[in-house]
Write a structure and sequence with these properties.
With 472 residues, the protein is of the alpha+beta class. The chain is built from 16 helices and 14 strands. The longest helix has 16 residues. It is elongated, with a radius of gyration of 25 Å. The two termini are 42 Å apart.
């Protein structure tokens, strides 16, 4: 049955097909490695990790492990920076099982087989679409301005010969596929479309991204409102110069979708007296003073667009063009500058969430797009947004969370009071403890119940009771 497998009766029943899945049963445990990842469970549940996954992923055959346990395990692995299932071979299965209320987690080959079963026949793409719709509904204000960009994902395997792409960060032509991401203004991802053969950003936007956004973006104006106001648009797409195409912009305008990008051929500099210093509220709430100027510009196909230029202190002019004819030029400048949030997402996800790692070990037809989703990054972002308000240095939030997820914790179930206390061990610095203590208060207000139990989770920070008795 494997190391740390002690639930003999139910494991035998599962092997005989007489058990659909085992229910979580928590026991008091101290010094559980990665116990801090349980602090992310309220955010994961709020983001829809376990909301009707069987409707999309299908139902697993009868066995010992339930679908929700597997999904939580994968999310905890991502937050704990275990970038592949193979890493579980070198982790104590019983310690990870304690985080799920089980005696142990499945073997790597078992976990891989179940993930492959859940991903078959486009089920993962269906689940991804459902999650994306839910996120857009929760963040409908952010869904009105969407950022699109491509990310080259290098392939280091040998099972298939992928086409070569130029990878700017390595300045080499390497075998790779291209992911086209759609993100919110703060960098949080909505969905991604993978293309093994890169058709270009323009084609992917028209054929894959725009039709999906037309269907999924919430709070779009009605057809009556669009007919009454010729300058009203459904939503705005922001992208870099790769999407510069006057023909594309005209077609987006016909669909009543506004576009915002850099001008690929800006021409001569404008006179300095046209620029006016103006306060601009950036996406993170910071107010910056920018020198801005605006003109109307006709593109090569006759399309009139707004051209906004920003004058830097070194007298360099950055040209922005848009078919949003209503928005204030300061807001357009801020929306364009927020595109760096998407670049920051690529960098962070590549370093900490194995963004460049292929999701599977099997080959595939190069004509089929694959859509994947990572709720774990959004859960971390939600927690980071809270911590930034409590820290003197806002850039410490994610560093603190990475430390939190790998910190040991005690798990203390109280069946009489129906609670599951997660007591995190103290961190290295007092100011870190202060921030985590405030996070505990916030998480306890959610009254999160651990899935398939009646135990309300209670989050604490403190010294284990056994050590307190020893110190006395």
């Amino acid at each position: 049955m494997g190391r740390a497998a002690c639930n003999v009766t139910e494991r035998v029943a599962a092997s005989l097909g007489e058990l659909s899945f085992v229910a979580p049963k928590f026991q008091a445990s101290v010094d559980v490695p990665y116990g801090g990842v349980l602090f992310a469970l309220p955010a994961l549940l709020a983001l829809g990790l376990l909301d009707a996954p069987e409707d999309c992923l299908g139902k697993l055959p009868n066995g010992y492990y339930a679908l929700d346990s597997l999904l939580m395990l994968l999310a905890f692995m991502a937050l704990g920076r275990l970038d592949s299932m193979e890493r579980l071979r070198y982790s104590a299965p019983g310690e990870w099982g304690k985080l799920l209320g089980l005696d142990r987690i499945p073997e790597v080959r078992t976990l891989r087989a179940k993930v492959q079963l859940l991903s078959a026949d486009g089920q993962a793409a269906k689940w991804s679409a459902q999650l994306s719709q839910g996120w857009m509904g929760q963040e409908y204000e952010q869904a009105g301005v969407l950022y699109v960009d491509g990310h080259t994902r290098v392939y280091h395997g040998s099972q298939t010969k992928l086409p070569r792409h130029y990878v700017a960060r390595q300045k080499l032509c390497l075998r790779a596929s291209v992911d086209f991401w759609v993100n919110a203004m703060d960098g949080q991802p909505f969905f991604v479309v993978n293309k093994v053969v890169d058709p270009g950003l323009v084609k992917v936007m028209e054929e894959d991204i725009v039709p999906r956004l037309q269907r999924d973006v919430p709070n779009q104006p009605s057809q009556e409102a669009l007919d009454a106001d010729p300058y009203l648009h459904r939503f705005t797409l922001v992208f870099d110069r790769e999407g510069y195409s006057p023909q594309l912009w005209s077609r987006l305008k016909d669909k009543r979708i506004a576009a915002l990008s850099y001008h690929k051929f800006p021409g001569q500099d404008w006179a300095a007296h046209e620029f006016l210093a103006q306060p601009v509220t950036l996406a993170n709430g910071q107010i910056a003073t920018l020198s801005l100027a605006e003109r109307g510009t006709r593109l090569s196909n006759g399309l009139w667009v707004r051209e906004i230029r920003k004058l830097s202190q070194q007298s360099h002019q950055s040209s922005i063009i848009s078919t949003d004819y209503r928005c204030d030029l300061r807001r357009l400048a801020a929306n364009m500058m927020a595109r760096w949030s998407q670049e920051n997402f690529f960098k962070y996800a590549r370093e900490h969430y194995a963004l460049d790692r292929l999701a599977g070990y099997c080959t595939q037809e190069i004509t089929d797009p694959i859509e994947v989703v990572n709720p774990a990054y959004r859960a971390e972002t939600a927690m980071a947004n809270f911590l930034r308000e409590k820290l003197a240095r806002v850039d410490e939030a994610r560093t603190l969370l990475r430390c939190l997820y790998t910190t040991e914790a005690d798990l203390l179930p109280d069946l009489n009071n129906k609670t599951l206390t997660v007591r995190l061990h103290h961190l290295a610095q007092h100011r870190s403890d202060q921030a985590i203590a405030l996070l505990c208060e916030e998480l306890n207000q959610t009254q999160t119940v651990f899935p398939r139990t009646d135990l309300t989770m209670v989050f604490e920070l403190g010294t284990p009771k056994i050590l307190e008795r020893g110190l006395k």
